[in-house]
Structure formats: structure tokens, C-alpha cells
Prior knowledge:
The complex is a heterodimer of chains A (383) and B (272).
Chain A: E1 8-13, H1 14-25, E2 27-32, H2 39-51, E3 55-58, H3 62-73, E4 78-83, H4 85-100, E5 105-111, H5 128-133, E6 142-144, H6 149-166, E7 169-175, H7 176-180, E8 182-187, H8 207-213, E9 231-233, H9 248-263, H10 266-269, E10 272-275, E11 281-286, H11 289-302, E12 307-312, E13 314-316, H12 320-329, E14 332-336, H13 344-351, E15 356-360, H14 371-382
Parallel strand pairs in A: 2-3, 2-4, 4-5, 5-7, 6-7, 11-12, 11-14, 14-15
Antiparallel strand pairs in A: 1-8, 6-13, 10-12
Helix pairs in contact in A: 1-2, 1-6, 3-4, 11-14, 12-13
Chain B: H1 26-39, E1 47-51, E2 67-70, H2 76-86, E3 91-97, H3 98-104, H4 106-115, E4 120-125, H5 160-167, E5 171-176, H6 180-192, E6 197-202, H7 206-213, H8 218-228, E7 229-231, E8 247-254, H9 260-271
Parallel strand pairs in B: 1-2, 1-3, 3-4, 4-6, 5-6, 7-8
Antiparallel strand pairs in B: 5-8
Amino acid sequence: xxxxxxxxxxxxxxxxxxxxxxxxxxxxxxxxxxxxxxxxxxxxxxxxxxxxxxxxxxxxxxxxxxxxxxxxxxxxxxxxxxxxxxxxxxxxxxxxxxxxxxxxxxxxxxxxxxxxxxxxxxxxxxxxxxxxxxxxxxxxxxxxxxxxxxxxxxxxxxxxxxxxxxxxxxxxxxxxxxxxxxxxxxxxxxxxxxxxxxxxxxxxxxxxxxxxxxxxxxxxxxxxxxxxxxxxxxxxxxxxxxxxxxxxxxxxxxxxxxxxxxxxxxxxxxxxxxxxxxxxxxxxxxxxxxxxxxxxxxxxxxxxxxxxxxxxxxxxxxxxxxxxxxxxxxxxxxxxxxxxxxxxxxxxxxxxxxxxxxxxxxxxxxxxxxxxxxxxxxxxxxx
Amino acid sequence: xxxxxxxxxxxxxxxxxxxxxxxxxxxxxxxxxxxxxxxxxxxxxxxxxxxxxxxxxxxxxxxxxxxxxxxxxxxxxxxxxxxxxxxxxxxxxxxxxxxxxxxxxxxxxxxxxxxxxxxxxxxxxxxxxxxxxxxxxxxxxxxxxxxxxxxxxxxxxxxxxxxxxxxxxxxxxxxxxxxxxxxxxxxxxxxxxxxxxxxxxxxxxxxxxxxxxxxxxxxxxxxxxxxxxxxxxxxxxxxxxxxxxxxxxxxxxxxxxxxxxxxxxxxxxxxx
Lengths: 383, 272
């Protein structure tokens, strides 16, 4: 028999760890299209899913991939796709569909460099804002940023848990570094892993019972094949899926429902790794930029310089409140991103002038920050 | 005594009027699909109806009292592929228009046919983009003046059954809305067929096609379908000039090929 959970210590590639995390989380459907640097996730899923009773579908393009994932999710199957920037751009319309129809699914973006074809094998954190606002309309998303193969595994599970809990597509914003990196990955025993399942209405639930369950921020999902006679539409609709595309009241209610379910539960979703006690300078990072932060702090500790770290494990929803609190405690915030500053404006807005905000990209985009350069910047800021 | 339409039991309560223009062919297609399910004595709860964007997408959505997935423009077959693959017990029927399935969604159509996944795809072909006001589409006849071909259409239309056959569909038929009984029979066959079934229904859009191209009102257009269609069975008896301007209707393909969901199930067994 094949194992569902490969408990043990592995030397594993990030993309592969991401696929294994998905399988542990209960993912049983993957649809995708080959693309560097995400193809290894599809390859792993193609081999592993049939072993655990799941289905791998290689679609004709990324538009079809996300469509199939959404279709699969409506049968009650946990579903995922993995791609890189060009594929995400193609998926954007249907990602909006998943948001509009409150369809849980996981979308892995192993980011590569530059717009359009760009540099397939070099990483850039260039799609951070695209994840937030790439599809049209007005919506909230959840995006997680793994910084190691271990986190490719851990956050893959977390992404499914959040998707199921909040009936929403969840992005894993990886990049070519962490996707192709091989490192130690510890897969725990199955009993030690927390798995969340979506709420489904009880069979035979009558309409009035169903209505009362809809008063929750996240309604149970009337999945296909159980006699719920679900009407799923991305047109503006009411709690019963009944279309209303004429009244501003209906539009207002619908958009606020979609957004508030995340806004109201922000604190439950947001995940940061913060170690700032007593520091005057703090480094904000996410994903692979954190790797330089670890090294920089080690070096500076040796020189008796205490520099804090505030790492965004979840980027969206953005942790404004926590950054506001942070800004009150420190003098300077240095934001490390492998791009030209995508979250910096959000950090500045959250800091409200309480701390100086400095942006630090790597010397060359598409590379990891050189710790020497970060150390130099920290010392400059302190003086 | 209250008169009840025999198919009303299949209509979602509270949705008893259509959004289609009067004279539209959508109603005939809706009835044919529901009658096929009724005659097969099948349960609507075993079906998922999937549609895209455009007038024909409103045939199942929201009216069919079953699980209905009203998707984005051009993508219903890709959504349906995910539904079917992850729950092969469900009967999955796509009902959508020619612009949706054959222009923006053409790639999904040929690939689903190639995979031979067990879907029933009914394409309402009105030869035009009706919902947006009568623009040229991939099925618009050559030379026709539309809002975006004011000097006549310079492109040839697709022959949809040939496209479906070449792509790998195992059941292919074409009818017009005049052929409601034959259409019902074909939908019944398609539902029962293991594999990718495709039915084109040439359907009147009296508002944007009929009025603009002077094809006439709904009745005139349907009389035209009667007059200008030739059953494939009678094709050999006709001379080439007699076929000019005619539409060939009937069953074009009925063959057996390995079906994708069944192959996946076998593969899972094999690797155990």
C-alpha cells in the first residue's frame, strides 16, 4: 500500500514538499499545465494522487486548469493548481470566479522573474500585488509566503485549512528559489497534523434550516451530488444563489459579504513570525528574503547589535494593525523584498509615520539579498 | 383544474419565466433536454448542468432544478471536466452557445473531445452573439452582415460536427430547433453514451439574427430550417447542386472508445 503521509525526515525539493503537504491536507484533485519553475509540483501530484485515490488532470492551459479545480471543489474534493506568473495571469478571471462563488481551492504561484515570459528560472517576488488585486472587482484574498522547503510543506497544509475554513482561494506565493531548493523537510506523524474540512449542510436540510446557517460569515457549502440543487453563479446573487444584477442594494450586500468574511476574521488568518524585543531596527521580510534576515541577525548578534525580525508568513490579508504596533516600538523598519517595493507602501501606510520605513531590494533583482549589504544598511540606519 | 406543464417538476421553484426573447430557440432546447431526462426516468439530482456566458447559458441556469454551475465565458467544459473527474458518478451536461463553446472556449472543446471524458455537450448555435447585440461569431455564415461585419462576414464558419468528430467525440449529432423530437432522442442517446457526446442545435435568434439579416421571425426561421435541412441518411441520393444552401442534420458519429474516467479508475487499480 502507498502511504498518504510520508512521515519522517527527508531531503526534499520545495516543489515536491508543497505537493506532499497538499496530499497530507487531503488534496485529491490537481489540474495544471507545465511551466517552469512549478512543473515539479504537477509531476509529483501526477505520481502521488492516483496512489491515494485522487485525480491528476493535465489541462490544455491554465485557464482550464483553474476551471477544473473549481469544478472539482464543488464536488466536495479538495483541489489545487500550481503554476508561475504567466499561468497566474491566465487564471485571473476564474480566480475571481472562485472568490465570487466562495470556492475553496489552493493556487501555488512559484514566482519567476519579470512581466510576460521574463526569466523562467530566476525568482522575483513580482506577483505579490497581483495576488491581491489581479482579478477585477473588489475582493479579499489570502496569500502565504513560504521561506523554505519545510514551509512549502507546512504552508501547503495551512493553505488548504484556510481555504476550507473560509471558502476562498488561497495563494501560496513561493518563488523559484524555494521551489527548486532542496533542504531538510520533516513530515510529522499524521495524528500531529491539524486538518480542517469545509462545512457542508446536512443532507435533507430544509430551506429554513439552511437559511439560519447562512447567517454565519462563511456559509456551509452545498456541494454537488447530494440533492442540494445548488445554483452556483458568479453573477451578483443573494444567499440562495438567486441572481440580482439590477439593484445596488444587492451589489452592496454581496460585495460586503465576500470581503467582510475575511476582514472580520483577519486576526484568525494573519500569521507573522515576530522577534523584535528591545530592537530599535527591525527587518520586515517574507518568503525567501527571510533567509538573508536570519544570517544578518546572527552576524550582528556577534557584534552585539540587536536587530529585530518581523516576517510575514501570510502577506494577505495585510497585518496593518501589527505593523502599526511595531512602528510605535521601533525607530526604523527596513523592508526587504526581491522586487522594487510591492509591500513597502502598505508598510508605510500602516506605520503612520511612527517609524522610519526604508526599502531594501537585493543588489540585483532575482538574487537573494547579500547579508553584507543588509548588515551595512542596518549600521547606516543605526548611526 | 390547474394546468401544469408536464416538465414543470424539473424547473427550480420560483423561476417560472425565462429571460429569453420571445421566439428564441432556447425554450425548445430546454424542453428537449428535460424531456430526454424525463423519458429516461432519470433523477435530476444525479445531474450537474454546466453553462458559460451568453443567451444559451441561461437554458439550465437557473431554471433546471438540479445542481447548476453557471461559469465564466468559454470555460464550462473545463469546469465540467473537473466536476466529472472528481465525481464520475455524476451525469454532467454542458449546455451553452456557439460563441461560448466554439470561439472563446474552442480549445477546451477540442481537448475534452480528445480526452473522451464522459460529458454531454449541447451547443445552441444561433450563428451570432445574441446577448451582446448581434456581432459576428465563429459560426456566422460567410458574407453575412452583422454589427461587426457591416460589409459582410469575410470568414468561413466552423462545421461543428466535423470539428467534434476530428477531435475525438464518440457521439455527434446535429439538429435544428425544428427537429425537437429527433433532438430529444439524440440527447437521450448522448446521456447514455460513455464518452464525449456532442450535439449541435441550430437555433433561431429572431431578434439579432432574424431581424438584422432579414431571415425573418421565429416561425419563418424555423420553416427555413425545415425546408433547408437534409438528413444525413438521404445525403447520398441528392446531387451536389441540390445540396447547395442545405444544412445536413442527423447522427454523424456513434462509436466506442476508451472513456477517461474509466481509464483513470483502471489505472488506480493497476498501480496498487
